[in-house]
Amino acid sequence: xxxxxxxxxxxxxxxxxxxxxxxxxxxxxxxxxxxxxxxxxxxxxxxxxxxxxxxxxxxxxxxxxxxxxxxxxxxxxxxxxxxxxxxxxxxxxxxxxxxxxxxxx
Length: 105
Description:
- By secondary structure, the chain is of the alpha+beta class.
- It has one domain (about 5-100).
- It is about 50% helix and about 25% strand.
- It is built from 3 helices and 3 strands.
- It has helices spanning about 5-25, 30-45, 90-100, and strands at about 50-60, 60-75, 75-80.
- A 3-stranded antiparallel sheet has the order 1-2-3.
- A hairpin with a 2-residue loop joins strand 1 (about 50-60) and strand 2.
């Protein structure tokens, strides 16, 4: 996928997130925003999956551990939802790790 396509999808994702936030407001659980965002993607005919299991590997060996991506859009872009007042460095580290482990944007 080229940069223009990523930019188009990410812009659409951002718009959908803003729509959900305007509709629901702050202070709800991440799971509520997740379900609402999935509905918004469906209404926009955007291919998205939620709670996608990703197997963990170490040095080429599969470990008996999966982690979950909150939302995977168009099989390319990872959305990690947070319902917090402030994003902390640990939140940024988490998404960076997920991106490395999945080789996604």
